[in-house]
Specification:
Radius of gyration: 67 Å
Organism: Teladorsagia circumcincta
Largest sheet: none
Distance between the termini: 198 Å
Number of strands: 0
Helix content: 55-70%
Protein name: DM14 domain-containing protein
InterPro entries: CC2D1A/B, CC2D1A/B_DM14
GO molecular function: DNA-binding transcription repressor activity, RNA polymerase II-specific
């Protein structure tokens, strides 16, 4: 059986001259080689060879012949010249000065630092309190103006600023520290009040005096008053005025009254007779 005939009948023509098949075969071969390279272990690096100079203790990069010649030269050193060398003297003075400067810093570092002074509980910054109150008054006027205009956005913003300033004023009056970044910005119309017009700090009321344990003294009565009261008699009894003291009636009035009495008596008698006759 001829296989070439079978290949020609299946693939058609010469396979070795087919460019597409050769390109596909080359791609498969490159992919297989790449897989093998990835799976292969990394190469072990060999240690550098030790040179003869390194074995002898000579540093690498130094010519041993030149080194031996330099060591063989007898160089005379003038000590007087070294003592008067300005460069060496400047370097020495710099080293001595730096050491002297380091000593006091070390002493300062080891010395205990005094504790920071804490603000007094009742102390407060009068200028800061005056500034905060002035700002709060300005923003309150701006809040009233925005409320009158009906601008709700400005009204809410001014209300938040007024609340913040009120809180800062309370902190400043208590003597607490206030960060400058917390203070709202000052409007252009605001002027910082002078320190003289600032309200003085409130003084704590004096504590009430403790109640005394002793009772109050009893007032003394004078003996002269008692003697006067005892010597004085009872008050006089008022006397009733007698009838003689009354003013006398006129004779005409007395005569008329008698006539009236007589007429009354006569009328009673007449009425009695009439009643008996019936």
């Amino acid at each position: 059986m001829d296989f070439t005939e079978i290949e020609k009948s299946i693939y058609g023509g010469n396979i070795e001259e087919d460019e597409e098949l050769m390109a596909e075969l080359l791609a498969l071969q490159q992919e297989e080689e790449a897989k093998q390279r990835r799976s292969a272990p990394p190469p072990v690096r060999s240690a550098p060879a030790v040179t003869v100079e390194a074995r002898r203790g000579v540093p690498i990069g130094v010519d041993p012949t030149l080194l031996s010649k330099a060591l063989a030269d007898d160089v005379e050193v003038d000590e007087n010249a070294l003592e008067n060398d300005p460069e060496l003297l400047a370097e020495l003075s710099g080293l001595i000065g730096s050491s002297e400067e380091e000593e006091p810093t070390d002493a300062n570092a080891t010395a205990p630092r005094p504790p920071p002074k804490l603000p007094l509980p009742g102390a407060r910054d009068a200028a800061l309190v005056g500034k905060l109150r002035g700002l709060m008054a300005v923003y309150e006027r701006m809040l009233a103006a925005s409320a009158k205009e009906g601008n709700t956005v400005k009204q809410r913003r001014h209300q938040r600023t007024v609340d913040k300033l009120r809180e800062l004023v309370m902190k400043a009056e208590r003597g607490e520290n206030i960060d400058e970044s917390e203070i709202p910005p000052s409007p252009p119309s605001f002027v910082t009040p002078p320190n003289d017009t600032v309200v003085p700090p409130r003084q704590a009321p004096a504590p009430p005096a403790p109640p005394s344990s002793q009772p109050p003294p009893v007032p003394r009565r004078s003996t002269s008053g008692i003697m006067q009261e005892s010597s004085a008699g009872p008050p006089p009894i008022p006397q009733r005025s007698s009838s003689s003291c009354l003013p006398a009636e006129s004779p005409e009035k007395s005569a008329d009254s008698r006539k009236d009495q007589i007429l009354k008596v006569l009328k009673r008698r007449r009425d009695a007779y009439v009643a008996n006759g019936k």
